[in-house]
Design brief:
It comes from Oryzias melastigma (Marine medaka). Keywords: Coiled coil, Secreted, Signal. This protein is of the alpha+beta class. It has a domain of 115 residues: Jelly Rolls, CATH 2.60.120. It has three helices and 13 strands. Strands 3, 5, 6, 8, 9 and 11 form a six-stranded antiparallel beta sheet that branches. Strands 4-1-13-7-10 form a five-stranded antiparallel beta sheet, with no helix packed on it. The protein has a two-stranded antiparallel sheet with strand order 2-12. A hairpin with a 2-residue loop joins strand 8 and strand 9. Helix 1 runs antiparallel to helix 2 and helix 1 packs antiparallel against helix 3. The longest helix has 35 residues. The radius of gyration is 37 Å and the shape is rod-shaped.
Length: 214
Amino acid sequence: TWDCRSLSSTMLLLTFLLCGAHLAHDVAAGTQGVGESALSCPDVDSLQRELRDLKERQTSVEASLTDAQSQIAELNSKAKSTVVFSATTDESGAIGPFNTHTNILYKKAITNVGGAYNPSTGIFTAPVSGIYYFSFFSHSGGNRIVNLQLMKNEEFIVGIYDHQTSHDGADNGGNAAFVQLRQGDQVYVRLIANTHVWGKGSVTTFNGFLLSQE
């Protein structure tokens, strides 16, 4: 950063040295030119005024630069992020029933642009605030109840439910929702206690993407 105070001191010192040199020269030549030399020395007050103006201009430029940097940082933070994921359970058979509510682990991430979905936990964590679209689908045997819930943090959003029957060999279900999330919010699919889904292959899936960033 340009230090105007140092510049001011340096220029004043140079001014005095120049004036002293002129005076010394005139004294050596004779006293008649001393008054004229004193009058010819730069106006120190005028020089100080110019330095003050220069410092004010520098302060204004620095303020404009800081403001521009803040605007650039804000625009970068609002630049649209690409967040898309699609995952499947990829199990060997049925998932459940369990004695307690259990988060479904969609272990195989088919697509995970942005890395917001964690296959180890089955949880999607919003990297930015915005409107997201989520969908989830299930395949199941008809001899057991199916009850899946799309959750935002601990809040129920939408679900898939199918009752138990003795004559229906298999069922498919699905649901979807647009969800407004803040950065750090978590979305996952919960299997309700004493229910099940079929996890083999790629028939039970969880998907989502960022639609509009705030």
